[in-house]
Every structure is written in C-alpha cells, then in structure tokens.
Amino acid sequence: MTKExxxxxxxxxxxxxxFSAEEATLLAMRAQLLATLRETIIERGxxxxxxxxxxxxxxxxxxxxxxxxxxxxxxxMLVTLATRAGRKVELLAA
Length: 94
Fold this sequence. Notes:
This protein is 57% helix and 0% strand. By secondary structure, it is mainly α. The protein has a single domain (13-84), classed as Orthogonal Bundle (434 Repressor (Amino-terminal Domain)), CATH 1.10.260. The chain is elongated and about 50 Å long.
C-alpha cells in the first residue's frame, strides 16, 4: 500500500485548493462569518422564525444560512447579519 504524501496547509483551505490569494481570502472570511453566525444561532437556541426576526431576513435566507450555503451571501451581508446578531466584527490583518 502506497502512502499519499502529506502536504502542509498554508492556513487557508481555499488557497490550498488553488484559488487566487484575493479570492481565497474573501472565501475564508465568508466561511468564518457564516460559521460564527450559525454558532450564535445555535447557542441562543433561536428557531428559524426567531432568527429571521432578529436578523431582519426571510426564513428561507435563514435556511440557506443554516445549511452553509455561503455562496448565497456576500461578505457585506454576512457582516451585517453578524452585527445584527450582536457579534462584533473585526478585520485583523496578518
């Protein structure tokens, strides 16, 4: 049995998958914000109806959010939703 070589990650899975540095950064930011939003909703025990009311979006958008359909949300929208959920959003340059 042949072992596959282990390739160390650069720290951004999207860059590892071959996306340009700019796109990989944006995708990673969107993925992180979406994960944070989902965690917040779960921690607070909000139903989809409560989440929709709290975030000011339709229930179908909440469903997209909870199903990790990050491609349906712009970075701006995710920042807005995280802020509406009471999260502080900061950009830390590395």
